[in-house]
Specification:
Structural class: alpha+beta
Number of helices: 12
Number of strands: 14
Bound molecules: flavin-adenine dinucleotide
Amino acid sequence: MTLPPFDLHRPRSLEEATELTERYGEDAAFYCGGTELLLLLKLGFASFGHLVDLKQIEELEGVRAEEGELVIGAAVTHRELERSDLVRTRLPALAKMEGRVANLRVREVGTLGGNLCFSDPHSDPATFLLVLDAEVEHRRGGEAARRTPISDFVVGPYQTSLGEGEVLTSVRIPELPRGAAIVHAKFAFHERPTATVACLARVVEGEVAEARVAVGSVGARPVRAPAAEQVLTGVSAGELDSTLFAEAGERAAEAAVPVDDATGSAEYKTQLVRVLVERTFREAVA
Ligand SMILES: Cc1cc2nc3c(=O)[nH]c(=O)nc-3n(C[C@H](O)[C@H](O)[C@H](O)COP(=O)(O)OP(=O)(O)OC[C@H]3O[C@@H](n4cnc5c(N)ncnc54)[C@H](O)[C@@H]3O)c2cc1C
């Protein structure tokens, strides 16, 4: 596998990046870590004469806390998130989830923005961010920035709601509700996850005051499972038994609409969702 030739551009601003994609049109593509795009080029599944490297654009870098939100630059790598002191302190579940994405080589260069923009259905961060009601910010050159909930950003396999020439600039994660715990679980046989489930539980005076369930990797895109959340909300923590989890797992699998693919059959993935919803929610409540 060899890379076909292309011209590499290294803009220092978003305006410059957009200008390049306007100049070269369909013959140009953005790239960041290149773990997805360069592989597609090597395999001959895509072809571009011009690659626009986003890594030199300062505003896509760094992790910061801003008005209660955790703001992550789109070009921040999985490895940076796994090791960030700010992330470990404010949202340790994010650091833990990131530490289990892919392998060290991919985590060192692959970015959060690249993961979301590529929109491979087998994504850990997409499921995790969905349970947190995260938003993404995106912009085209000097235009005003737009914010989109992650639930609307990931549209389907390899499809996002990003507009023509727009760059994903950051991911914004709201503060966790006080007393809430979040747990992310993945099940994988191959490089990418077969099933991902993230649950958030907030227990107040022994009762589940809030339950959130997100399921991904099994269907076309990650989804929240409101019917499963409803089953688990308002229940006393002591009454969370296998009958209730069987019901919640069933509702979550229905919402996710599992499909047959190289990582497993729809029936098998349905069973994985049932098991992972119980396991993750129990852990979040504990
Ligand atoms: C072996 C392997 C194992 C993996 N395992 C997992 C796993 O377990 N869990 C998981 O979730 N993922 C997994 N992945 C996916 C991995 O997380 C992504 O490959 C990586 O995060 C993509 O980031 P990147 O910067 O390399 O993207 P790139 O390849 O640079 O870009 C990907 C796409 O996004 C576009 N793009 C990138 N950044 C932006 C931006 N800021 N704005 C607009 N468009 C942009 C590019 O145009 C391109 O179309 C795996 C990948 C590999 C190769």
